[in-house]
Write a structure and sequence with these properties.
There is one protein chain. With 415 residues, the chain is an alpha/beta fold. The chain is 33% helix and 25% strand. The chain contains 13 helices and 21 strands. Bound molecules: flavin-adenine dinucleotide. Flavin-adenine dinucleotide binds next to helix 1, strand 2, helix 2, strand 14 and strand 19. Its EC number is 1.4.99.1.
Amino acid sequence: MRYEVIVIGAGMVGTSIAWHLQKNNSNVLLLDKKLPGSETSYGNAGLIQREAIHTHPFPRQLTEMIRVLPNQGTDIRYRIPAILRYHQALLQYWKYSTPASVKKIESEWQTLIEHCTSEHQTMISASGADELITRDGWLQLHRSEETFKEAQVSAIDARNQGVEHNVLNLEQLKAMEPRANFEGFVGAIHWLNSWQVSNPSSLVKAYAKNFQDMQGTIKENDVKEIVQDAEGWKVITDKDTYYSDKLVIAAGPWSNDLIKPLGYNLPLFPMRGYHQHFKVTEKNTIHHSMFDMDKGFVMGPMQQGIRITTGAEMTTMNAPKNFGQLQTVLKLAKKILPLEDAVESEAWAGSRPCMPDMKPVIGPADKHDKLWFAFGHSHQGFTLGPMTGRLVEEMIHDKPVLVDLAPFSAQRFSN
Ligand SMILES: Cc1cc2nc3c(=O)[nH]c(=O)nc-3n(C[C@H](O)[C@H](O)[C@H](O)COP(=O)(O)OP(=O)(O)OC[C@H]3O[C@@H](n4cnc5c(N)ncnc54)[C@H](O)[C@@H]3O)c2cc1C
């Protein structure tokens, strides 16, 4: 069968693109080797981050570098083979991380973030997924007076961009989460207009189901080869071959595997994270996700239990799991909450798809007609999936596009 558009990758990004296209009268096939929302969009911290107006630059200050180098941190770790493999992308990442460059990047990034909750809301309402969403924000916990003060200044600035917050002292924090032990903390920022999802994979699945209800097609196939000829696109998978006029690559951290054979080589690199769930009891019940700002991990109430998610580990995609970072995080987390019974025997691991300039690639490919890229959303792909879906639909259907897409074009790395 011939489709108007094939979208490869049914994470939050690809599913949202397929949804928008199908809703706007395209005949879409969404392809993934697994069920929708089974990879990175399964294992994240489940935050729809309206407050995420800042990016994650490479550490450039000497004190920061000295802190990261011994490779014992809870927020960031690295493995040498990954440094060697991605050294060019990392060098670019370093260059893009000067204060002046970050300022410009963040002003472009913010044009996406400002629409994240409203774009999710459209899809949540259409999919009837409201029961997965909590809209009373999340808590950014601080252990040091210095980072707490900096965060307060930054939060006041963020008000200009529609980001709402409250500053909480320890007493107010305790009142919000009475089961938690906040010994060693000095206070928190309560981000008010960010949302929490109780099962990230289920939200992607709800969007995918709604896409099917609109007559969209989903197939569980592993894409092996992509070919363009005079007829259009031919997508060869482990099970079948599919044909379309237009093609979108939204395969998250695997996107380069699919586009390299077509002659593209974008500096995409993975940043791994781990999670493990712990059974909820009367003693550890929490109502908000809590991010330990100074140690870089999240504890969030999920359907499966309390999900502990780590910061980033710079490693290659297929490297074996290394639980060192998670083990250190768990020791800290267990001081905050009694976490006795792990739900899974082995922790989950997945990779954030990152670009050196901290912005996703959203736009047409330059060497082929009717080919679009949408990947590299790094730490906020779950937040930005629906916004990306809207933008890709507008581009493909030649409509006016909500934001200027020049800062996100694939061609920005051509030179
Ligand atoms: C620990 C952790 C915590 C995070 N927390 C948050 C958070 O709170 N909020 C937030 O906004 N973001 C968060 N993120 C980031 C977010 O999860 C990612 O940016 C986002 O999920 C990326 O979505 P995606 O659709 O691009 O990729 P994915 O969800 O990885 O989807 C890509 C899909 O492509 C498919 N695929 C790949 N190759 C092929 C092939 N050859 N054939 C067929 N299918 C293929 C895969 O099977 C996969 O389903 C977190 C990430 C991690 C790791």
